[in-house]
Amino acid sequence: MSPRTGGAARTGQYAALVCYLVFLAFPFLWLISTAFKPARELGSLHPTWLPEDPTLDNFRQAFDEQPLLRAAANSLTAALCAALIAVVIATPMAYVMARHRGRLSTAATGWVVISQAFPFVLVIIPLFLVLKNLHLINSLWGLIMVYVVWSLPFALWMLAGYVRAVPPELEEAAAVDGAGKARILVSVTAPLLAPGIVATALFAFITAWNEFFFALVLLKTPEKQTLPVVLTHFLGAEGVADLGPLAAAAALATLPSLLLFAFIQKRITGGLTTGAVKH
Amino acid sequence: MRRSPLAAAAAMTATLALLLTGCSGGGRGTDADGTIRLSFQSLAWQKESVDANKQLVQEWNRIHPDIQVDYVQGSWDSVHDQLLTSFEGGEAPDVIHDASDDLADFAYGGYLADLRTLLPDRLTEDIPRQSWRTTTFGDGVYGVPFLQEPKVLIANTKILQASGVRIPTPQRPWSWPEFREITDELTAKGRYGVAWPLKEPVSVTLNLGLSAGGKLFHRDADGKVTIRFEEGDQVMPETVRDQVNADRSAARTALGMGGSDTLPGFFGGRYAMVPLGFSYRQQVVEQAPEGFEWSVLPAPAGAGGLAQGVSPQTLSVAEDSPHKKEAVQFIDFLLRPPNMVRLARGDWMLPTGTDALADPSLHTTENGWATGAALAGALRPAPAQSVRGYPEWKDKVATPALQEFYSGAIDVKELEERLAGSGNRVLARYQR
Predict the structure, then answer these.
(1) Is B164 exposed, middle or buried (0-12, 13-18, 19+ CB in 10 A)?
(2) Closest CA to A148 of A197, A201, A218, A212
(3) Strands B140-141 and B136-137, how do they pair?
(4) N or C: which terminus of chain B has fewer CB atoms within 10 Å of its end residue's CB?
(5) A243 contact B CB<8A
(6) How far apart are CA A26 and CA A36, in angstroms?
(7) Among candidates B305, B320, B315, B310, which has minimal Cα distance to B336?
């Protein structure tokens, strides 16, 4: 390839990348723009990218009408706890699944994949009855249990992939040097799995943070409701919406996920790379 | 009540035994001191409406220390699934806010209390018979209809006045043919006479079809329902189709829109009129540009006069509620005429109650209240809401058929074959 064609190809790649980023970012940018538009601009026939007369009224109204901070705190509690518990449970299970392969392990992996296909409505009524008998209806802990159970299969499947990417020879070498099984796991395997654990935790966090239906059904009192449930309070019958406050509240609801991504982006990238390398 | 993880784990262990024995706690809905505790799930969502509901709950709680009501916020978006789960789990709210077209499954499923012996005479007599029909399934009454909204034409006053067309009133509405002529007259370069937001075409078509004498669903002497697409049923759909495809006086792009989506075009002068629910006036008031003049006109009339179908908002009581009598007392309080007016104004809708409807504040010309109030007497139960199999017919047969018809893809004969021919096969499965 000549330098000239190489430069053109690179320009094309950057152009494609910019287009892709714009495509990905469009809904979020539009949401932010909408959140700052006054009601009359929302009803304009010629919508503008930037609000002509930006206002914080939508945010004020959103906070005035709904307990967004309390709902965000509930969501954060549920999502963080669910992510933490799911990772703590999934990590040793994934290790066993990845290292001790046999019929049982294959069947378990198959079941994990199949269980992801169950629709929520199929499990919600039996689940509701179980939680009712456990007196965990209208309890954040009940919801956390559900989120853990719901995210566990995929977390398990994801982490098992990361475990397989850790060369068994490293563990064997540590064993030859006299390290016990527990020491090997803690000192050799766990550090190598760290990026995978972070990525899995992030997945569990975002799943729980965005989840709506379980939270709607299981949490009854306003004090317990999570952010996705409270956001629906800006919607009326037949899809009518209080668009400004809804956009403002939704924009705020996306912030924790974005911040979390920004904070641990490097670790995720590392984790993905780790999973991709074949040893 | 907050639970620690330890308590949750302990509860899990302890209640595994409960699961096996099927035991459950007692004294549901009653506090330790004997105070009755009711939960009221409201679907109010607009600020004024939520405020009105909460204030009324507070007033009730103040004057009824022995019967306390907890306000629970629900949402229209997912109320059916949420209620179904709550009913199955025996955890439904005592007082349930919903819409009459959502009640049939719950009523036939035995989840809602039959209110006939519980309702006070005052309430029974205050609400007209046609409204009660929306919540009557079989022999029972499973909800109190309290708010309703007709479809109206929201019009750009300046365009209408400049065109010199006759302005319709509830006493002298436009006929369907006249409406077609007028939208043609109002159409100009860059402007359509009307925009029909028909993203969900079925209920609009059925409800407005009543004005032309359409009925579509016919109940035989044996109680079975058959669909017949007769002359009256064709008037409204054919008018819309002709406006879109022949006259070009209705915007084709609006066919796939929801009501709110048409408002920017309406404010921008692109559409002279938009048929919308009465409560959309609130959005118009909030979003219309400074100086924009608009008015509320009655929907066109035909052989059926101004009749149109509605599915009122309702208040029901869960069959599982241990305090049905008290729940109905609360409903009666909530729906006393002055309170019903507060709820109606909060939701920008019309009350069903005769006394509430007579309130002067609902007869002002401001924001079209008077036009809506004048239409209240012509509102009827939506044609199909008690027909079993209707949801499947609506989703699988009628929605695609009407969408194709309105866009000009199929003719009226094909529409009839799909709505009635295929439709009756669907209904037959539910009526064996």
Answers:
(1) exposed
(2) A201
(3) antiparallel
(4) C
(5) yes
(6) 16
(7) B315
| Confidence label for A266 from pLDDT (cuts 50, 70 and 90) | low
Long-range interactions of A245-248: CB distance < 8 A, separation 24+ = A245/A58, A245/A59, A245/A61, A245/A62, A245/A65, A245/A66, A246/A62, A247/A31, A247/A34, A247/A35, A247/A58, A248/A35, A248/A58, A248/A59, A248/A61, A248/A62
Asked whether the beta carbons of residue B99 and residue A234 sit closer than 8 angstroms, the reply is no
Say if A206 is an interface residue toward chain B (CB within 8 Å): no
Q: Which chain A residues have a beta carbon less than 8 Å from that of B89?
A: 125, 128-129, 132, 137
**pLDDT band at B16, cuts 50/70/90?**
very low
User: Strand B225-227 relative to strand B217-219: parallel, antiparallel, unpaired?
Assistant: antiparallel
Residue A207: how many other CB atoms lie within 10 Å: 18
Interface test with A, best of B12, B21, B46 (most A CBs within 10 A): B12
Collect all residues of chain B within an 8 Å Cβ-Cβ radius of residue A128. 85-86, 88-89, 91
What does the pLDDT look like over A40-54, one tens digit per residue? 888 777 888 889 889
**What's the confidence (pLDDT) of residue B110?**
94
Unique residue bearing structure tokens 């009526």: B431
Query: In this structure, are strands B217-219 and B308-310 parallel, antiparallel, or unpaired?
Result: unpaired
The answer, yes or no, to whether ipTM is higher than 0.85 is no
Distance in angstroms (rounded) separating the CA atoms of residues B281 and B402: 27
B95: nearest Cα among B26, B43, B27: B43
CB atoms within 10 A of CB B269: 15
Question: CB contacts < 8 Å between A and B, how many?
Answer: 131
Least CA distance to B91: which residue of chain A? A132
**What confidence score (pLDDT) does residue A154 get?**
85
Distance from CA of A172 to the nearest CA of B (A): 38
pLDDT score, position A267 = 60
Going B120 to B121 to B125 to B130, the CA torsion angle's sign is positive
Q: Which residue, among B287, B372, B108, has the nearest Cα to A39 in the 3D structure? A: B287
Q: What integer is the mean pLDDT of B393-408?
A: 95
Please provide residue B273's backbone torsions phi and psi, each rounded to the nearest 5 degrees: -145, 150
B7-30: average pLDDT: 46
Angle CA(B203)–CA(B208)–CA(B211) in degrees, nearest 5?
150
Please determine, for residue B15, whether its predicted confidence score (pLDDT) is greater than 80. no
> Rounded mean pLDDT of B189-211?
95
What count of other Cβ atoms lies within 10 Å of the Cβ of residue B349? 24
Q: Are B174 and B231 in contact (CB under 8 A)?
A: no
Which has the minimum average pLDDT: A197-201, A231-235, B26-30, B406-410? B26-30
Helix (H, G, I), strand (E, B) or coil at B318: strand
Asked if B99 and A237 come within 8 Å (Cβ–Cβ), the reply is yes
Share of chain B above pLDDT 70, in %: 94
- pLDDT tens-digit map of B141-172: 999 999 999 999 999 999 999 999 999 999 99
Give me the phi and psi of A196, to 5 degrees please.
-65, -40
* pLDDT score, position A165: 87
Nearest C-alpha in A relative to B6: A141
Q: Which single residue is written with the structure tokens 């939208």?
A: B183
Read off the pTM: 0.82
Contact flag A238-B267 (C-beta cutoff 8 Å):
no
Chain A, 69-88: which have a CB under 8 Å from a chain B CB? Answer: none
Q: Under a CB-based contact definition with an 8 Å cutoff, are residues B310 and B134 in contact? A: yes
Of B258, B268, B287, the CB nearest to A42: B287
Q: Considering only the beta carbons, identify the residue of A125, A212, A229 that sits closest to B89.
A: A125
pLDDT digits (tens, 9 = 90+) for B319-360: 999 999 999 999 999 999 999 999 999 999 999 999 999 999
Extract the tokens encoding B261: 């989506």
